[in-house]
Amino acid sequence: MVKLKFQFWLFALGILLAVSVAVPANATTYLSHFSKDQYLMTKKTIHTTNSHYKNIKITIPKGTVLKSSRLTKSSKTKHPYLTINLNRLHWSLRKAIIQSSHNVTSTSGIWAKTSTFKKVHAPAYQTYFKQPYTGTIGGLIWEVTKAFPLRQQYKIENCLRVTDDGYLEYFTGYDYWVNKMPAPHSAAKVEKFVKKGKADYLYTASKVSGLNMKQVAKKGQHRYRLKITKTDQHMATVNPAQDKKYDESVTISIRYYVGGKKFYVNSQVIEP
């Protein structure tokens, strides 16, 4: 019996040694199996450059939450990498690439190492907006009664959003067709997010100028509160054809109230 136990422990020890040799303790591992809208958090500070031109230095701090691009495998190493769309992050992180002369907003490829990124759930503060048909969260809410006709959407509008990394940004004179997210008129980090029914409450330490925020405390990180309410009201905007002889389509928008003011988001375009 003792001999059998001894042989068993020798066998188990052999298995452990074989595994330790096959998989080194310092082996690099990579992320895989991303969901449709996968959010990540950086586990360390990332130093990279812009894609294609690679002439702008970009630093993304440890602890930054971001929505990932899809994973792509290197043709040489077969290891997965991803890029980061800086348009979706707050101003200080996207400033260098936005102010550059290049019409590029993403980083160079970054190896999708588990030592660099970890998967996280979509942050609650991004749920202030949800596209009704795609389910995509986070996006621009426009400060107008309803959508302009498509042929007039060169007009300048005011709007707001919450970035992937949790900053409430308010834009004035926003160009509808802009490719790069410009500097916000005012912004503040969202310190707390509360959802009650159809109303969302965003708390910040400082007031975002231009938005009707309520001061709820004299000190601390939750001094100002913005209420965003989605309604069931749908508005229709008729899009006439260029010759104006008939209607080309109809844009359906959904009414939101932001700090008591009327805002909207586009829902869908219906064509005959």
Describe the structure.
The protein has about 270 residues and is mostly beta strands. It has two domains: about 80 residues, no CATH class; about 150 residues, no CATH class. The protein is built from two helices and 17 strands. Strands 9, 10, 11, 12, 13, 14, 15, 16 and 17 form a nine-stranded antiparallel beta sheet that branches. β15 and β16 form a beta hairpin. It is globular. The N terminus is likely disordered.
Label this structure with key terms.
single chain; mainly beta; 2 domains; 9-stranded antiparallel beta sheet; 3-stranded antiparallel beta sheet; 2 helices; 17 strands; globular; signal
Q: How do you describe this structure in short?
A:
This protein is mainly beta and 272 residues long.
Q: Structural class of the helix and strand makeup? A: mainly beta
Beta-strand percent range: 35-45%
The N- and C-terminal alpha carbons lie at a distance of: 84 Å
How much is the radius of gyration in Å?
24 Å
**SSE string, helix = H, strand = E?**
HEEEEEEHEEEEEEEEEEE
Taking all residues together, what is the mean pLDDT?
A: 86
Shape type: globular
User: How many structural domains are formed by the residues?
Assistant: 2
Number of distinct beta strands: 17
| Unreliable spans | 1-23
- Helical residue percent? 10-25%
Largest sheet: 9 strands, antiparallel
How many helices in DSSP terms?
A: 2
